[in-house]
Amino acid sequence: MRQRNQTVWRLAALATALVLTLGACDSTAGDATSTTGAVEVTTTTATQPADETTTTEETPVEEATVTYWHTMSEPEAAQLDAVIAAFEGANPGITVEPTRYAYDDFKAALTTSIAGGEGPDTARLDIIWVPEFAELGALLPLDGELASFDETASSVFPGPLATNLWDGSYYGLPQNTNTQVLLWNRDMFEAAGITEPPATLEEFATTACALSDSDAGTYGYGMGGTYFWAPAPIFYSSGGAVVDEGITTATGYVNGPESVAAFELLTGLYNDGCLSPSILGGGVGTAEGHATGAYATIIDGPWMVDIYRNDFPDFEVNFAPIPAEPDGTTSSVVGGENVVVFADTDQKDAALAWTEFLLSEESQRLLAEVGVVPTLSGLAGDPALPEYFEVFMAQLETAQARVPHPRWGDMDTAINEAFQRMLQGTQTPQEALDQAAEEINALLQ
Amino acid sequence: MTQTPADPVLHSGRDRQALTTSNRTESLGRPEPPGPPRGRRRAGVAWLFLLPGVALFAVFVLGPMIYSFRISLYDWNLVTPDRSEWLGFANYARALGDPTFQRAVVNTIAYTAVTVPAQMILGTALAVLLNKAIRGRAVYRVLYYLPVVTPWVIVALLFKFLFVGQGGFVNHILRNVLGVVDHDILWLADPLLIFAPIMALGIWKGLGWTAVIVLAGLQIIPAELEDAAKVDGAGPWQRFRFVTLPLLRPTLVFLFVVLVVGGLNAYVSNLLITDGGQPFGQTHFVLTLMYQETFTRLDFGYGAAISYLLTALVFMISVVQLRLLRRRVDL
After folding, report:
1. Cβ–Cβ below 8 Å for A42 and B64
2. How far is residue A436's CA from residue A419's CA, in Å, rounded to a whole number?
3. Minimal CA separation from A25 to chain B, in Å
4. Of B160, B291, B325, the CB nearest to A30
């Protein structure tokens, strides 16, 4: 869109240039240029909706087409076709039209299409977006609409289910879940004479430093950045919390002793050269760094199996639980996606049927084949699931959901910036988190 | 059919003739035929030809602009616009008092203030060199134009990669080749240093286009003028300063106007290099902040207000520049 604008604008500019340089220096030429420039500014917002691909809905009386937007990976999207085929076979007359988006473009695509009245019937949303879209009034509360809601709700993991709750209603159902665990490079460990991944946070710190040699460019631990998802596993494993259970205050939670201890651990590792400096200024990515021997450990999700299979087929992926406090009751962070139905759908019944099907054992098993962790607790330990799911399913038992709140994005930013301030040494972890607590409290009002 | 002066067919035929022949016909005192005033008729025809353009402009530019202005006056409810809360100009007041917005304006102006003169000076120097009869001139012209046609996304990520703190090329040069620093600089983690890749990219990418425009300006300067100056004993710098530069003025003024508008609208490079204002929300341009407020934080009213404030800024600067444009240079 913008590129096209720019091309047109450049062409216009070239034409104007021609006129000018031929000696016809007229002030109207300047007029034209400045108008184009000024106009371009506002059209970037205004014309965005026209750019979105919209699916036309031809709906004869007995037929229904349900649109479903998602951000699946390529293998997942291919497997989705099998899920849709199974659904359409069981529900003659209903057609599902999937549309795939890049994660980074998804929110803008959804909001502009909703604003233009061209939104989808159903979508798979990142769990942290559900309260935000529910607050906008864009989503249908499923507990009021879906007859089988209670039954379905009791069959899924409670953590992922909780991410759909906003203001007393459930606005979605957990379609898939995930969490982050420790990945350890066995060759690097064995070269240092260590045979086991660290089990406690203290062991994690000493191991990370034992495996670091900043002159050689190797680090015991590599992190992708300072956004909350990155430190969250260590944060929750240390017993940290962002806010209280009722989501009323951050004071004593995000700056409580456990939360501060987690960030002190990470800041200490960074200052001692045991945590890769790429966390602040960019550098070697965590995935390739881990596979190529730059980072002995990283913390990441189940999709790494697929990434390594494609990019580093010879690399042996080793998962382990996140190191924990000996008496810890919380760990890691819940990720994943929820399926939602949009309030302005004109195919409500068909959309609800499709939503129900996505939570069925048949659909969840099909997607599990390509590495998508199911949310049905009944499938835990199922021998048909990939073997590496075990560590993730076990980790999910104590993994924590981020704050289900429409302003979560801003809370994430507050903690992210606090983390940067402590890494840059302008504040101690306590000072930085005290400030973050104030910023989050302001968001809760 | 008698051909009277009032005959519309004949009249329009003459009219057309009058358009194609020089204005001298008019001054010869040809009697004005009776009928509707020519000016208005001509304007009518002009409007007819303008209609498609005006219609497109109205539907796709003016309409959305007005709608967007309406949005800017509300706490806009995306899903049910009827329930939007009327705020008047509160979104505008909020933006003017918001340190992030103020910083974004400063950043945008600083970017423009650095990249526009740099592109103009380097582009002019390049054009003067390319205008000389050097071997392989066409090859150089293509080479310098290449950055212009490379996609923003790719080169923005490339520049970011050059400046990464761990194992980056720029740090490698500074530390291992030149030896001017003893530790890696975290360019991308510093709210000021991060503008090094952003500005370098803007200059690098715009240079070729600027040079092409100046080159076009140079080629219509008659060689006799420079020869005459040479005969009069002017050195190369004097010839450039007193012959070439004054005659390039229209080109340079045009470039200045266009580059400033482009600079104030810079967006892609910043978005990709700062990931939207990182670190600390201190590195936004007005457009990236507008995008973030609108599409990430879903505050459409505030985003629309920011877009109008940027429009106002561009408009004010353009008015000043138009005054610059009015002065003419006669060849």
Report:
1. yes
2. 9
3. 7
4. B325
Average pLDDT over residues A405-409: 92
Dump pLDDT digits (tens) for A206-264: 999 999 998 888 999 999 999 999 999 999 999 999 999 889 999 999 999 999 999 99
Q: Do the chains contact at B216 and A21, CB–CB below 8 Å? A: yes
Would the pLDDT of A40 be above 60?
no
Q: Does the beta carbon of A281 lie under 8 angstroms from any beta carbon of chain B? A: yes
Same domain, A223 and A263: yes
Option in B166, B258, B281 nearest A281 (CB): B166
Q: Please check whether residue A146 is in contact with residue A352, taking contact to mean a CB–CB distance below 8 angstroms.
A: yes
Structure tokens at B76: 């806009």
Among candidates B80, B187, B265 on the partner chain, residue whose Cβ is nearest the Cβ of A40: B265
Q: Is the peptide bond before B279 cis (omega within 30 degrees of 0)?
A: yes
Asked if residue A257 and residue A298 are part of one domain, the reply reads: yes
Say what percent of chain B tops pLDDT 70: 86
Residue A374, classed as helix, strand or coil, is coil
> Which of A25, A34, A136 faces B78 most closely, judged by CB atoms?
A136
Q: Quick check: B187 and A281 CB within 8 A?
A: yes
Q: Which pLDDT belongs to residue A308?
A: 93
> Would you call A282 and B168 a contact, using CB atoms and an 8 Å cutoff?
yes
pLDDT digit string, tens, across residues A303-318: 899 889 889 999 999 9
Q: Residues A268, A417: one domain?
A: yes
Q: CB of B129 within 8 Å of any CB in chain A?
A: no
A233's enclosing H/E stretch is helix A232-237
Q: What confidence tens digit (pLDDT) does each residue in B95-150 have?
A: 999 999 999 999 999 999 999 999 999 999 999 988 887 888 888 888 889 999 99
The nearest CA of chain A is from the CA of B71 a distance in Å of: 10
DSSP output for B256-298 = HHHHHHHHHT--HHHHHHHTTTTTTT-S--HHHHHHIIIIIS-
Is A205 in the same domain as A279? yes
What are the C-alpha distances in Å from A58 to residues A50, A94, B72, B169, B208? 20, 12, 35, 55, 50
| CATH topology (fold) of B90-326 | MetI-like fold (1.10.3720)
Q: Do B280 and A420 lie within an 8 Å CB cutoff?
A: yes
Confidence of residue A158 (pLDDT cuts 50, 70, 90): confident
* Residue A8 located in a structural domain: no
Domain locations in chain B as residue ranges = 90-326
Task: Name residues 397-436 of chain A within 8 A of B (Cβ).
Answer: 409-410, 413, 417, 420, 424
pTM: 0.78
The distance of Cα B291 from the centroid of its chain, to the nearest Å, equals 20
A118 and A143 inside one domain: yes
Q: Does B300 touch chain A (CB under 8 A)?
A: yes
- Are both A422 and A311 inside the same structural domain? yes
- Shortest Cα–Cα distance, A227 to chain B (Å): 11
A377 and A247 in a single domain? The answer is: no
Q: Are A411 and A443 in contact (CB under 8 A)?
A: yes
Residue A204, phi then psi, degrees to nearest 5: -60, -45
Q: Is residue A4 part of a domain?
A: no
Number of domains in chain A: 2
Average pLDDT, chain B: 85
Residue B80 has pLDDT above 50, yes or no: yes
Is A28 an interface residue toward B (CB < 8 Å)? no
For chain B, say whether A22 makes contact (Cβ under 8 Å).
yes
Domain that holds residue A211: 181-334+404-444
**Residue B166 contacts A where some CB pair is shorter than 8 Å:** yes
Q: A111 and B78: CB-CB below 8 Å? A: yes
Query: Does residue A275 share a domain with residue A207?
Result: yes
Instruction: List alpha helices for A47-141, DSSP H.
Output: 48-51, 74-90, 103-115, 130-136
Q: What is the CATH number of the domain that holds A420?
A: 3.40.190.10
